[in-house]
Design a protein that fits this description.
Elements lengths: L1 H31 L28 H58 L2 H26 L3 E5 L10 H13 L10 E7 L12 E6 L2 H14 L2 E3 L2 E7 L3 H8 L2 H10 L2 E5 L3 E6 L2 E5 L2 H9 L9 H4 L1
Antiparallel strand pairs: 1-3, 1-5, 2-3, 4-5, 6-7, 7-8
């Protein structure tokens, strides 16, 4: 805008001089066109006389200067209005930028506060996971301790227990394993099928759960069942197992394939609580808490120790 104002003065002076020159020139032209009284009239020669021309429509220098001045004034007005609009727009943009700066500053403060509060979250989350796992293990241990006097019977035909499962279980266990396998205080507290609802036809019989009063009687019953080996009732093969929680049962069932390989190799093994496998090989005990470790041990087992009477048969 300042440059435009500085260049406006020379243009106005030039326009003024041009206008004065045009006026002077027009006056001289008008004075020379009037005939003097002493001058002789021109010869009348109709053959060489040219027809008069009409110059009323031709623009004069004054008209040109006037048009130039009007254009200059119009451009000046237009530029001035546009510059004022730009000033207003720039002012609004500055206000918006200031607002954005303020919001950005507030946002940075909030983000910084969140980062400070969440800096220790990974460590706290790890601690919470550890505590949760500890609590879960303790709950599972308490559940298994409540089940330590239970006997899970598999293969017992449906409806064999009749309307009084406790009386049936007490009499049936004594007949199956012998009276000497239990203490004089042998009592069956509860007995029922698991799950409670009957299965569809053709399905294997549901597990029969027996809760004894004394866990020593449970241990004696399981030990006597292992000694007898094959147990039968009404033509069906019966198996007795300790009753564990679902978590422990899943862990122990993961050793099924490994146990089959150990039986084929003739190696003695024992499942320890909660889900640890003990293998006797050459008078030395090996303990494993995952079936993958057992398979790895079998792959690296010496060849001279792999031969066994059962494996050779």
């Amino acid at each position: 805008l300042s440059r435009f104002k500085n260049t406006q003065r020379p243009r106005s002076e030039a326009a003024t001089r041009l206008e004065q020159f045009a006026r002077k020139n027009s006056q001289e032209t008008a004075g020379s066109s009037t005939p003097s009284p002493s001058a002789s009239p021109p010869l009348s020669d109709t053959s060489t006389k040219e027809p008069p021309t009409d110059n009323s429509s031709a623009p004069t220098s004054v008209d040109l200067m006037s048009a130039i001045l009007q254009c200059q004034t119009s451009l000046t007005t237009t530029f001035t209005s546009k510059i004022e609009e730009l000033k207003i727009d720039l002012s609004l943009i500055k206000q918006d930028i200031q607002t954005i700066r303020e919001r950005t500053g507030a946002l940075e403060e909030r983000v910084g506060g969140v980062e400070d509060r969440t800096a220790n979250l990974p460590q706290e989350l790890t601690q919470i996971k550890t505590q949760l796992q500890t609590v879960t293990d303790r709950m599972d241990d308490l559940e298994n301790r409540q089940r330590r006097s239970n006997v899970r019977v598999l293969g017992l035909p449906e409806r064999s227990e009749g309307a009084h499962p406790e009386t049936f279980a007490e009499t049936w266990l004594k007949e199956l394993l012998g009276q000497d396998a239990f203490s004089p205080q042998f009592v069956v507290e509860r007995a029922h099928r698991v799950p409670l609802r009957p299965l569809p036809p053709g399905a294997p019989p549901r597990a029969f759960l027996i809760k004894l009063l004394n866990y020593r009687d449970r241990d004696s019953a399981l030990r006597e069942a292992r000694k007898k080996g094959d147990l039968q009732y009404a033509g069906a093969r019966i198996s007795l197992y300790p009753d564990y929680s679902s978590t422990v049962q899943k862990k122990r069932s993961s050793y099924t394939g490994v146990k089959r390989k150990l039986r084929d190799l003739g190696l003695e093994y024992t499942m320890l609580y909660p889900a640890k496998l003990k293998i006797m090989d050459g008078g030395k005990a090996h303990f494993f808490d995952r079936p993958e470790l057992v398979l790895e041990w079998l792959e690296h087992r010496p060849d001279n120790a792999r031969g066994s009477p059962r494996a050779q048969r």
